[in-house]
Design a protein that fits this description.
It is built from 3 helices and 3 strands, in the order E-H-H-E-E-H. The model has no long low-confidence stretch (mean pLDDT 87). It has helices at 6-11, 13-21, 70-78, and strands at 2-5, 26-30, 33-38. It has a domain at 1-41: YefM-like fold (3-Layer(aba) Sandwich), CATH 3.40.1620.10.
Length: 81
């Protein structure tokens, strides 16, 4: 994510607004210290962002997952045994 100081943000406001509207957020800093993050209005709220575990309870991993297809894999590497 890009950071712009306040002076640059003032002089490039139109360009930065277009950039944010296209979905590219950025930070405005004062004396090198980040002050605000600019994002598009239609950007998803942090609570709406997908996280790991969003399908929890919907997928079942078989008990033999670690050994599934072991015979077929061995045949591919070693031929018919």
């Amino acid at each position: 994510m890009q950071t712009f100081n306040i002076h640059d943000a003032k002089t490039q406001l139109s360009k930065l607004v277009e950039m944010a509207a296209k979905g590219e957020s950025f930070i405005i800093a004062k004396a090198g210290k980040p002050m605000v993050k600019v994002i598009a209005l239609d950007a998803p709220e942090p609570s709406e962002v997908k996280r790991f575990g969003f399908m929890s309870g919907q997928i079942k991993v078989p008990d033999d997952f670690n050994t599934m297809g072991a015979r077929e894999i061995q045949t591919l590497f070693e031929g018919d045994v």
